[in-house]
């Protein structure tokens, strides 16, 4: 199957990954196995998802070589202190049944902990072999710059909410300046994009579903990775079929123009101060 691979600071990351948020136990295992069977080669999980054991079971059940799959996990904000982060990463690797992950992220920043200590620990997780690469998630531009000033090892991605209802151009550019990729979670906007004229028009023009159009919009942007999540085997397969067509420049622009100031959907109490829309 065709793939787009994003290269970022030494990492080679498949641009279409399988997100596992809210999938638990056997459902997570079946989802990961189904995704790998139909061509996904990038799996995203997190300690907060409480599904790393199931994700590991799905990896093994798929029969796909470990070397062929890029596995990402994330350390939650309560465990990113310098004294806790490495132990948390060790727990992730053990639950997944792996010798190391490909990418370890700080899931959310936490102002209660010293950022310098968190970054030192994240670096240690890499240098000790728990992960091949490191990065961050949900870091606005100011915090991203602070983190870069503190790290000795390069970050390869910043994973944040992104879909056509949001303009993340500033944050994407901030990462690109440092050679980073950008990973989009909630990439299809939790279904709120379906029925919007530019997406419907592109779907008709290319003979594709609206989800496929939205995911293509993501991966057609330089350095952008999308990690859609689904528990439905048919939808998982559908989301894999986005590399056999391309949106026109006009279609890309029209879809991007759907962005609006109130487009953000993920708003937990612990979120940082986001960049102005």
Compose a concise summary of this entry.
With 277 residues, the chain is of the alpha/beta class.
Task: Write a concise keyword list for the protein shown above.
277 residues; eight-stranded parallel β-sheet; two-stranded antiparallel sheet
Question: Could you estimate the helical fraction of the residues in percent?
Answer: 25-40%
The average pLDDT value, as a whole number, equals 97
Number of helices: 10
Uncertain segments of ≥5 residues (pLDDT<50)? none
Describe the structure.
- Helix content is 37%, strand content 17%.
- It is globular and about 55 Å long.
- The longest helix has 13 residues, at 25-37.
- Strand 7, helix 5 (141-150) and strand 8 form a beta-alpha-beta unit.
- The protein is an alpha/beta fold and 277 residues long.
- The mean pLDDT is 97.
- It has helices at residues 25-37, 52-62, 85-96, 115-127, 141-150, 169-176, 197-206, 210-219, 233-240, 249-256; strands at 5-8, 11-14, 18-19, 42-44, 70-75, 101-106, 131-137, 155-161, 181-185, 224-226.
- Helix 3 (85-96) crosses helix 4 and helix 7 crosses helix 8.
- The protein contains ten helices and ten strands.
- The protein has a domain at 12-190 and 221-229: Alpha-Beta Barrel (TIM Barrel).
């Amino acid at each position: 199957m065709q793939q787009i691979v994003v290269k970022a600071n030494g990492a080679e990351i498949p641009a279409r990954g399988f997100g596992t948020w809210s999938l638990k136990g056997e459902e997570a295992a079946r989802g990961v196995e189904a995704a790998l069977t139909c061509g996904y080669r990038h799996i995203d999980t997190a300690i907060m998802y409480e599904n790393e054991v199931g994700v590991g079971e799905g990896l093994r059940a798929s029969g796909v070589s470990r070397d062929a799959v890029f596995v990402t996990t994330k350390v939650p904000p309560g465990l990113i202190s310098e004294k806790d982060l490495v132990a948390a990463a060790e727990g992730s690797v053990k639950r997944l049944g792996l010798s190391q992950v490909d990418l370890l992220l700080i899931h959310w920043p936490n102002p209660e902990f010293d950022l310098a200590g968190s970054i030192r620990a994240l670096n240690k997780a890499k240098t000790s072999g728990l992960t091949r690469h490191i990065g961050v998630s949900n870091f606005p531009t100011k915090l991203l710059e602070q983190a870069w000033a503190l790290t000795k090892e390069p970050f390869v991605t910043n994973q944040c909410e992104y879909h056509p209802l949001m303009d993340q151009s500033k944050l994407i550019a901030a990462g690109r300046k440092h050679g980073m990729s950008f990973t989009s979670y909630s990439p299809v906007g939790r279904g709120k994009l379906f029925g919007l004229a530019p997406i419907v028009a592109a779907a008709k023009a290319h003979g594709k579903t609206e989800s496929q159009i939205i995911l293509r919009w993501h991966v057609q942007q330089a350095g952008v990775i999308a990690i859609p999540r689904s528990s439905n085997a048919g939808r998982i397969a559908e989301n894999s079929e986005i590399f056999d067509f391309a949106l026109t420049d006009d279609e890309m622009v029209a879809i991007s123009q759907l962005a609006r100031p109130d487009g953000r959907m993920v708003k937990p109490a612990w979120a940082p101060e986001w960049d102005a829309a």
